[in-house]
Amino acid sequence: MTRTVRFHEVGGPEVLRLEDVDPGEPGPGEVRIRVEAIGVNRAEVLFRSGRYIEPVRRLPSGLGSEAAGVIEAVGPEVAGFEAGQAVSVVPAFSYNDYGMYAERAIAPASALLHRPDGVDAISGAAVWMPYLTAYGAMVEVGGMRAGDVAVVNAASSSVGLAAIHTAGRLGATPVAVTRTRAKRLRLVEEGAAEVIVSDEEDVAERVLELTGGRGAEYVFDAVAGPGVTELARAVAAGGTLLLWGAQSGLPTPYPGFELGMPALNLRTYTVHEITRDPVRMRRAAAFVASGLRAGAFRAVVDRVFPLEEIAEAHRHMESNAQFGKIVVTV
């Protein structure tokens, strides 16, 4: 038996329970991992509360898709991994099928990456999802090039920070959007060329001012909802507004007609477009590993909680006070 976080009903952080569960043996294409650290993601908060893009199909349910640990056992039809290897688990599966919030967990081998030497468990649980998300959106989907302007809202999230670092590595200009001034200086220190405080400034007007009226080639929106129309005003002709989150929880209008049908590309995106495609995943992993070796990429960790305080970790995520990644250690 192993301590495992599950919930028996959807709801707030208080529904999370730490229970003794048999993790079982790995089946074909699976491994069992002794988990050392877990990356907490916004998607897990939404899934737990019944507001995720995928519904909870059975209860009790587990959680978690990003972790670092050591392989304990390998199932049939697994190549390239063996017991004793340090690995990271990346989001490449449904929460309805697997969960990493546990001392020991079954994971599909297709969701594993070998953990590079020098990358500890906390970094190994915190670094991959943000950079894989940013790379996929900016390079594989967006085709971002040097000289482009990239506007990133929710910029102090782990994905937002990875997007700032990735834009900088590509030679693009990252413009961070944050709600208050509290995180402004830290965003500049993380590489933002400009920081727009949305509670004090008109985001679209400020972007147009910064770009000489041209607008940004890319706007990355993690919030969605009614504000998408204003963000669309900041997009250059032929540019892209990419929705990679829906933190607002509100209906999201299509802004094109209200704005007079500009040459606007509007697209949704999740990291699964990368992690569930072996060819794209190979390129993404190589890009992120290169950035780690060069020192351009790193895990930005906000707080570390023990597994026993998983509910508090979720409450901290919901507070939106974090700067970077929330990690749980086992």
TrEMBL record:
Residues 11-328 form the Enoyl reductase (ER) domain. It holds the Pfam family ADH_N. CDD domains: MDR2. It comes from Nonomuraea phyllanthi. GO terms for molecular function: NADPH binding; oxidoreductase activity, acting on NAD(P)H. This is Zinc-binding dehydrogenase. Keywords: NADP, Oxidoreductase. The keyword Cell membrane does not apply.
